[in-house]
Write a structure and sequence with these properties.
Elements: H1 8-18, H2 21-25, E1 31-36, H3 43-54, E2 57-62, H4 65-75, E3 83-86, H5 89-97, E4 101-102, H6 107-112, E5 129-140, E6 165-166, H7 173-186, H8 188-200, H9 210-219, E7 224-228, H10 229-237, H11 241-249, E8 251-253, E9 264-272, H12 278-288, H13 291-299, E10 304-305, H14 315-319, H15 332-335, H16 339-349
Parallel strand pairs: 1-2, 1-3, 6-7
Antiparallel strand pairs: 3-9, 4-9, 5-7, 5-8, 5-9, 5-10
Helix pairs in contact: 7-8, 8-16, 9-11
Length: 352
């Protein structure tokens, strides 16, 4: 059952059914209660394998990120949630800042997941960790734009691209995460100047989602745009004639390969602040880092595995050039701290 933020009442009813007092009181039943913003059919096999392997039953309520955060805040200490699964580092960091997670320690996760894909560690542990990654790539029209003019994020502010750049809203978490890394690298003054230059190069006011940006480049409305890599992969895998036509008209650039590396974001998870089954929650997170689960987790949304040394076979990923690109090394936990500052910059430069 998939719910949105606008249907919190229905989510509450579902949670009551799944996590009723009798179920919570039954000490013999091993459970982990999952609030998930991931809604992919392929994940079902992964969840079933966890239960078969551990004997721990997964009770799941699905919503979007905003719905999950709103529910956790409303439930407070009475929340049955053990694991929170969200699909963006900015959203994880925001929920963490609101005190909705608890720190945890796991040698398994320390060994499997790179530190840059987790919250900053404290003596008590970490509060969230990534389990899949996606790249923030550039798509461009090779008939209008040279590859050398879009091979870094910084060049999106070059006057050469005036009237050619398209993005979704600057305040969207996908862009906030990217912009926060650019500001972290360039510093506040140069970072804000860069954002001002991107605004000056806009072909039109920011609107739509990432797929809309790709299609706008293909249609000639824009010459260059930002998108998450999995949106490109979806179009590559599509059987629709129109989608195939779009991908014939655009090229893909993994930016900053000769410098700082391409920005990556995550889908990740945390242990809920008031988890009733914290040990089972950690077992579930450790399972998500296993090669078996990583294959399900990454392929479910055409993403890249987060765990070290794990690879997946996905023709769409291969068509984009594979997963062996240089990634940015700035820790997402550090970048998350820049987002309020970056939002204020966006307001000042008029980035809608």
């Amino acid at each position: 059952m998939t719910k949105t933020a606008s249907s919190l009442a229905m989510i509450a009813l579902a949670a009551t059914s799944l996590f009723g007092a009798a179920g919570l009181a039954n000490a013999q039943e091993q459970v982990v209660n999952l609030y998930s913003a991931r809604h992919y059919a392929t994940d079902e096999g992964m969840y079933e394998a966890f239960t078969r392997t551990t004997g721990i039953k997964i009770n799941r309520v699905d919503a979007d990120d905003a719905g999950i955060v709103a529910r956790l805040k409303a439930e407070g200490a009475a929340s049955p949630a053990d694991v929170i699964l969200l699909v963006d580092a900015a959203r994880l960091a925001s929920a963490d800042a609101q005190g909705l997670f608890q720190p945890f320690k796991s040698k398994v996760l320390d060994a499997a997941i790179p530190a840059k894909l987790r919250a900053a560690a404290t003596p008590e542990g970490v509060t969230w960790t990534g389990f899949s990654t996606r790249a923030r790539v550039i798509v461009y029209d090779p008939a209008r734009v040279k590859a050398a003019d879009v091979d870094t994020y910084e060049k999106l502010a070059d006057p050469k691209l005036k009237g050619l750049v398209c993005t979704r809203t600057g305040s969207h978490p996908y862009n906030l995460s990217l912009f926060s890394t650019v500001v972290e690298r360039l510093g506040d003054a140069k970072g804000e100047e860069w954002l001002k230059g991107v605004v000056a190069n806009m072909a039109r006011a920011p609107k739509g989602g990432d797929t809309d940006q790709i299609k706008a480049v293909a249609s000639g409305e824009c010459g260059v745009a930002l998108t998450n890599s999995y949106y490109v992969a979806r179009l590559i895998k599509s059987d629709k004639v129109d989608d195939k036509a779009v991908m014939q008209k655009v090229k893909i650039m993994f930016p900053n390969q000769a410098t700082s590396g391409t920005h990556v974001n995550i889908a990740g998870a945390a242990v809920a602040k008031h988890a009733k089954n914290p040990a089972n929650a950690i077992k579930f997170l450790e399972f998500l880092a296993s090669p078996f689960a990583q294959d399900y987790f990454a392929n479910g949304n055409n993403e890249f595995p987060a765990a070290k040394g794990v690879s997946v076979s996905n023709p769409a990923i291969a068509a984009m050039g594979g997963a062996n690109f240089k990634q940015e090394n700035i820790p997402l936990g550090v970048v998350a701290k820049n987002q309020l500052k970056v939002q204020q910059m966006l307001d000042r430069v008029g980035y809608k």
